[in-house]
Task: structure prediction
Amino acid sequence: MQDLKLALIQSDIHWHEIGANLAMFEEKIWQIQEEVDVILLPEMFQTGFTMEHNGLAEPMNFNTFKWMRQMASQKNAVVCGSYIVKEDGQVFNRLLWMQPDGAFYKYDKRHLFRMANEHDHFDMGKDRLIVEWRGWKICPMICYDLRFPVWSRNVNLEYDLLLYVANWPAVRVNAWDALLKARAIENVSYTIGLNRVGKDGVGIEYNGHAGAYSPKGEVLTFSDQEEILIVSLSGEDLLRFREKFPAQLDADRFEIKY
Result:
């Protein structure tokens, strides 16, 4: 495994302004001077975390989809983030994994945030996503999924990196920090979480805490500011640790019932 380099764009978000957010994130993407393998954007990066999807939800292959494809091609890197998608009469908080060659994968948020009534406005995803990229197996998820360890359990080391994109409020950021570290340790994998900063249109405050954690729970990068974080993950270190500490061999076996 070669090393994997990621750019985490921790940013404020213009409330319900898709065009303004695409323009802003495009400028931030072009600020990334070094070559990276993955560019990570927050949850609902072009609207903010909202239940008002009428007029904001887009079909696939529309403006945001095409913008992500263009950015991925121009930067020769995966561009990954979630936004509101309508498809076949349903509405999803959908993470899009867009590769430079135009190939893409999608993950629809499984755990909808009940305390904001997300389950009343969006349809639940049913399938987990694991993608292979430049020698790495990567499992991307969205925000509230972080609280549910069974959904992310790394059975038989199916993945090497667990990703979360989020709009996680400052009032609960201690849980965010603790759970990201726990997911890394229990799954013997790298774990990265990208949040947003600023205040949204309903007055909720966000203070970032984007972070990357090693399988040992070590903090590789961390920020509570609006900035672009660059983090490089060592494939050699991961393989060496898994060889010396194969905790996955003693993991409990289980089956998820829908």
Summary: The chain has six helices and 14 strands. The first strand starts at residue 4 and ends at 10.
